[in-house]
């Protein structure tokens, strides 16, 4: 599922029409022509639309009439090992989270989530579609997940310190959630859940905010141009860097620099 010139197909499944409209508008406004957005009003329709349109990303509400989002996700995962599944729900319950992990969901966002949280996790999902087609072996994933649940969880502070150090050492590189998970020999879904428990945000949001903070430090040196700074903090595309920097700070890198004068 590695794409270059094709559009990324995103499914939104939610029984609330206003919710679907707001999410769809936010996605289209930010990603523009890069994406095609499809909608479903329940789990059964979500499965049908996902298969018909061969979507790369499924954004699913959990509480829907008939087949709910978790049941739909399980069916979607059976038919597509490589897609990114994201749950957007008002329910913060452990059983839901466990089932989300079981289908290897990329993330689990609680309503009302911010536009920034949604965009960040979709950027991560698109990055996965661009860079690789990961097709995990279902049996190996299940065995690994069961073994992890049997083990005593790593102490939160140790986990946080280790990952923080890893990201600090590699933020200027093209690292991903999968790279960090491999450092601890965790599955992607297990690491994703553990990361959010310790940092109160998802991996890509934490990494992006760190890069922006490092960029702010470099912008104080007037001898370094903005394009070089974007490369130094891990952004391959300076235009994309400018867009992300403005989304987080409210100003462009150049405007931020002028404000320091």
Silhouette? globular
Q: Give the distance, in angstroms, between the N- and C-terminal Cα atoms.
A: 47 Å
| Chain-averaged pLDDT | 82
Radius of gyration from the alpha-carbon trace, in angstroms: 19 Å
What's the order of the H and E elements? EHEHEHEHEHHHHHHHHH
Assign a percent range to the helix content: 55-70%
- Count of helix runs: 13
**What percentage of amino acids are in beta strands?**
5-15%
Structure, described:
The chain has 261 residues and is α/β, with parallel strands linked by helices. The protein contains 13 helices and 5 strands. The protein has a 5-stranded parallel β-sheet, sandwiched between helices. Helix 1 links the parallel strand 1 and strand 2 (35-40). It is globular and about 60 Å long. The protein starts with 7 loop residues before the first strand and ends with a helix.
Keywords:
disordered N terminus, 13 helices, alpha/beta, 5-stranded parallel β-sheet, 261 residues
Short recap of the structure:
The protein is built from 13 helices and five strands. The protein is of the alpha/beta class and 261 residues long. α2 packs parallel to α3 and α8 crosses α9.
């Amino acid at each position: 599922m590695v794409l270059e010139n094709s559009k990324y197909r995103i499914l939104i499944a939610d029984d609330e029409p206003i919710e679907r409209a707001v999410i769809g508008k936010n996605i289209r406004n930010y990603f523009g022509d890069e994406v095609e957005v499809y909608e479903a009003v329940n789990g059964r329709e979500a499965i049908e639309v996902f298969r018909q349109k061969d979507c790369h990303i499924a954004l699913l509400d959990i509480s829907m009439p008939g087949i709910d989002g978790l049941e739909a996700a399980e069916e979607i995962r059976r038919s597509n090992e490589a897609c990114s599944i994201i749950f957007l729900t008002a329910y913060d319950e452990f059983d839901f989270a466990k089932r989300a992990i079981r289908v290897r969901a990329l993330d689990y966002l609680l309503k009302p989530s911010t536009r920034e949280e949604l965009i960040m996790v979709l950027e991560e999902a698109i990055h996965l579609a661009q860079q690789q087609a990961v097709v995990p072996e279902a049996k190996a994933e299940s065995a690994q997940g069961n073994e992890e649940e049997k083990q005593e969880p790593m102490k939160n502070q140790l986990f946080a310190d280790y990952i923080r150090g890893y990201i600090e050492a590699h933020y200027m590189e093209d690292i991903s959630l999968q790279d960090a998970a491999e450092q601890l020999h965790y599955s992607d879904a297990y690491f994703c859940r553990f990361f959010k428990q310790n940092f109160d945000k998802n991996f890509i949001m934490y990494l992006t905010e760190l890069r922006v903070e490092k960029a702010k430090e470099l912008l104080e040196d007037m001898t370094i141009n903005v394009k070089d700074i974007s490369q130094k903090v891990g952004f391959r595309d300076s235009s994309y860097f400018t867009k992300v920097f403005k989304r987080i700070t409210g100003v462009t890198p150049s405007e931020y620099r002028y404000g320091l004068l």
